[in-house]
Design goal:
Blueprint lengths: L11 E8 L3 H12 L4 E4 L22 H5 L6 H12 L5 H9 L1 H9 L6 E3 L18 E3 L10 H4 L5 H6 L10 H16 L2 E4 L2 E8 L5 E8 L5 E12 L8 H8 L17 H8 L4 E2 L4 E8 L5 E3 L7 E3 L13 H11 L9 E5 L17 H6 L3 E4 L2 H8 L3 H17 L11 H5 L18 E13 L2 E2 L6 E3 L5 E7 L17 H31 L4
Parallel strand pairs: 1-2, 1-8, 2-5, 8-18
Antiparallel strand pairs: 3-4, 6-7, 7-8, 9-16, 10-11, 10-15, 12-13, 13-15, 14-15, 17-18
Helix pairs in contact: 1-8, 1-16, 3-4, 13-14
Length: about 525
Amino acid sequence: MTDEETTTDWDEECDVLVIGSGGGGLTGACTTAAAGLDTLVVEKTGHYGGTTAYAGACLWLPGNAAQARAGVEDSAELGRAYFRAVVGDSTPADLQDAYIDNAGPTVDFLERDHDVLFEHRPFPDYFDAPGRFPLGRGVFPVEYPAPEAGDDLLAAVRPAAWEERLGVRGPEGPFTDGRALIARLLVALRATGHGRTRLRTALTALVTDADGAVTGAELSTSGGEGTLRVRARRGVLLAAGGFEASHRLRREWQRLPGADWTMGAPGANTGDAILAAQAIGADTALLAESWWCPSVLFPDGSANFALGFRGGVFVDRHGRRFANECLPYDRMGRAMLAADVGNSPDRPVWWVFDGRWGEEPPGIVVVPADRKSFAEAGLWHTADTLDELAAATGIDATGLAGTVRAFNAYAADGADADHHRGEDPYDRFFADGTGPNPCLVPVDQGPFHAVRLVLGDLGTKGGLRTDTAARVLRADGAVIPGLYATGNTMASVAGPYYPGPGAPIGSAMVFGHLAGRHLAGRGARLLADSAAEHGRA
């Protein structure tokens, strides 16, 4: 929607309107609210937190105070050296600098509020490149107490993934991981006295004035109000995730069969914010990209993120391995794309492992206790021999036998001649084998299992092009005044790479903070411009 002059019937006003309540949106909201700006956060679903609430919430923020407290000697310069070596020139250098240089200051800003606190925990960077930290530079939110009775704000934090997606009751106790981050940011926002939130409120259009500046938004609500027009006196921050849940956009922009295999939070992340910005002239980039990951396929057609593989091999329908199974998850996802496997129903990937692991897959994956449903759906097979397993799965028996025979020889020797599994610190981070290479555990004890894997993702990473203040750009590089973006709504500063654990949420928070700082300063300029127009400069 355009032309504010025809939209004078505002239903509500605020200084800053934030679309989305994940880590990036709430960091931006905390920044503007702490500056005294009336900040309204709207969330499309009935829960705060978006996909951030599902995450382990490691944050890739080089050179911050939490690292220093743990004795980790990191800096922006070390982080920049590593980030540049990995990302190269796939994104603008000044955008990369804005991320790296403001990582520490973002942590400083948030930790000034006693309700936001971070701690360092080991988790390796993902690439062998200059400046890499083999034990990681990531920081995590410290757990936060469970909400007291009557605290409706914290009671609305999105449940953990296993509870919401699988119907498995989560443990009682404090908020942890991504839920802890969202809880802490919500409490910090509330403490400012200038932050408001609304659930079940979705963006349908952006409102602009005659000069193309964004002045507000049109929203739809499920609370009985219907359409709601909100004026945003200083601007709108789009932080509504990507388009991972849109079947149409996944097919159109990524040539994938659909959106069933994402870990995006249900009911959201359908590209609304990106489409609304495109409608007023915003430019986009990286639309073919996602934060990829191997995922276990579920009987209902959805899929669940898996990592930390400690045993078994991944094979295609020919029984061939195609990559190092211990690769960081995004790199494994890209290996699946390169091999053209797991990305459609007719190109299966099977995770084959043996009986030494008992009834649980040797990795970190939330699988319901009801294995019978997987077996009935043909997604989990068990057999006494590899030949029988091949017959049940449709894998070429000769190929599978040859692959396992070669892999077992590699395990005895301690070196994977095909894919170099176990040679990288990330590979060994999860390993618990006892042979010469702890990542190479033989597949030789029946019964044998095969679990179906597909190419999943943690969200798309292509979106709106922005500048170093997170302002949205047009195709010619001009800024759209009053419009900002962060998180997966923004074209990622990491380009087609995933440099280290927490780069998605960490960069979202930094650019949310940068947007908030610019919005807070924008008011002074608006007042000066207004005074000049009226002869009071």
